[in-house]
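Suppose a classmate hands you a notebook page containing two proteins, each written out with its sequence and a corresponding row of structure tokens. How would you begin to make sense of it? This section walks through that situation. The first entry is reproduced here exactly as it would appear on such a page.
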Amino acid sequence: MVPSTVQQLAVLVALVLPGIFYQAVSDRLRGPQAAEQEPQNRALRAIAISGLLDAVYAVAAGPWLARLLDGGEGGPLAGVLRHPRQAGLAVLLLVVVVPSWAAWAAAVVRRRRERAHYEPTPTAWDFLFADREPCFVRIRLKGGLWVGGWLGSRSAVSAFPQPQDIYLESQWRLGSDGTFLGRMPGTTGVYVKGSEIEVLELLAAPAPAPVPVARREQDDDSTERSEREGRQGRQGRQGR
């Protein structure tokens, strides 16, 4: 429901938005929680957190907020129109800054009490592909078939809470033992559902083979000889 009056907008700001900002910062620091993925659960939690914060605001700054919102003869919330800067500062502090700080403080306290460090990445799948450099991917499906390809800038990998799946921008042929045999002709990518994957392995691109010292020296001699012959040819043309 979209607020259609000033009063409805004020209720939305007071009862929902502080809790939404709290949850957003908390999810960023702790990672999404499975119990909070249902929309109704998140809405109820946002309202509960907003109600708690509103109670704290009323105790700490109730008289100042009452004067700011007092419309007098101008109607409800007319004080906001008379003091727009103070109203904007109040919204910034009470809706954004304080809930965000409270979520950060709660996360710090929780981490200190936990015996083990909590990794905010929600699943091993997300951890595996987070900030991943381009590489080869080798997949063994549940039916025993090997699938592989190149994970590059045009590839895509799902993230929590979406179902696990992966798109590789180019497909490669694999042998019966999973050995890469070569790029598939005309490939434009391959898609694999996470529910079909039994084993997934990431492989760094092989480094270029080093050039033998003797060959490098031979190449250097050839380059030097070519440059010398080129200079002699230019000098001969200039002499003529």
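The notebook's second entry, a different protein, reads as follows.
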Amino acid sequence: MSSVYWGSPQILTGEGVYVSSWKKPALVAVSALTAFAVSACGVTSGASEAPKQPSVLELLASDLKGSLLKAVEATDKTDSVTVTMTGTMAGEKISVLGLLDLGDPLKAEMKMTNSKGTTTVRMIGAVIFTEIPAENRAGTGGKRWMKMDLTGLSEMAGTGFTEQFENADPVKQVKTLLALEGTTVVGQETVNGVPTVHYTVTTPVATYLKQIDAMRRDATEQALATQGIKELKIDLWVDEQYRPRRAGLLMGKLGDMVIDYTDYDKAVTIETPPPAETTDFAEMLEGLQGLTASN
């Protein structure tokens, strides 16, 4: 005899379980939604994921030349940067804190510190202004700045002043590395809290000399030859925005230099010193030559 169930209508399922007929549509709907959710999450059998795109750091490590070309492009668009240089030159420790305005003309202000003290130098294009220590201003009529126009003083090329400015230019650092053969990837490293990829190359002196300014090439070659240096080691660290964060130059017994780059595109103001506070080096030389000729 068939059983009779009172209350809401019920349906006997294939497992012998009674389910209220009004609940069955709800169960079907829940099952459909569950299947859709699982499928959307990519968990269902046969689902495929889109290929993972490499990170910028991975591209920096895998595509060396392409990454350095992007670094040149990105750095060329930079308006300004702060540089901190530390190292040794001819056995003497030096440190430099500077600002670079990478517009046209290039402007820079650097405070150079060594065992003799701190010197402030400004460069506006090809003209360099060196601050005269207060105790030495009597010989310049009390004027604070010494002006040296390098366009008319080729003998000044290759001096420490011009070398510091050229070495500090981040665009120059990238172009030098790009032009040299044998550059390799060291790996990912953090510089001043910023993720970077480290590149390195060891190059013969003759090859390196082709990458520096022709006006100071002879002086640099002579200095390296005097110390018997035959090769140089160059390092560069580039961040995820394709901008240099650190550069290094190892010159054997002649010295070494590490340059850190921070505060990209921060507003800077580098002004030409007032003429009333400036004495011209070339004019001073002419005066000295006149005195010598008259004696």
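A careful reader of the second entry would note: The longest strand covers residues 194-204.
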